[in-house]
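Hey, resending since the last one bounced:
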Amino acid sequence: MVSSLAFGSRAVAWSDVWAALGGADDTLEQAAATKRIPRTVLAVVIGGALGLAGAVMQGVTRNPLADPGILGVNMGASLAVVSAVAFFGLTSPTGYIWVATAGAAVSALFVYVVGALGRGGATPLKLALAGAATSAAFASLVSAVVLPRNDIAGSFRLWQIGGVGGASFERIGHVLPFLVAGFALCLLSARGLNSLALGDELAAGLGERVAVVRSVAALGAVVLCGASTAVAGPIAFVGLVVPHACRLLIGVDHRWLLPFSVLLGASLLTAADVVGRVVARPAEIDVGIVTALIGAPFFIYIVRRQKVRAL
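The structure tokens again:
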């Protein structure tokens, strides 16, 4: 977070960073650091939300390929927001979040139903393929809605890539209650997700209400995805990379995995934002592009593993 305040298109000395944290904006460097504070906070909360949502989705579906971007959840939220703005004149920041959450929920349900068709039910690769196809279709629909509308095309073009630029504490305040609710639902599901990992029948034999656990955890993940997409756009691959990295560090117990996914997700997105600001000075590369460059090779690696191919 301190690096995010210090590095960007304009380098800021550490003394100016500490002065900005104290509320000073007397010099240009201090003003730059002050402007970066809400951007850094937004990167932290969105990264944590996406990392947690990915870990929960992987636990709910028992699918190592699950990710809000890969399963089409983020793009479903994007299509809902774009359609609401273009056809219904949506302008309320809170309305954006409600609409995005509804779109994320419908998209997640659609992908799961499509992935469950045919022999074998909802296998990991079938869900990934259904999610990829749904994401591609929704992305095309988003373009079809936005391109003819010059009045909204400019503002949505950058939002579609995914980024935390232009952050403000007002925007964070609008999305924070939804994120808190999503965090609570997901973290409270940790013990139930441990039982689901053993299989539905064994989980039920241990006294878990499988449908309730899966529904509550999925609802928390959908709320996190919808709120994150509404404020930062459809940022992909954070929810895929982070849970796998956390399993290597602390194991598969969701009581530890979920909090660590929040921490590592926040770290990854904040670092990606810093990299995007530094490598193309004085311009910027949106954080959604940086995470895609990191996540796409990792996704290919996961798919090519023998264990996943066997699933």
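The longest helix spans residues 28-61.

Sorry for the duplicate.
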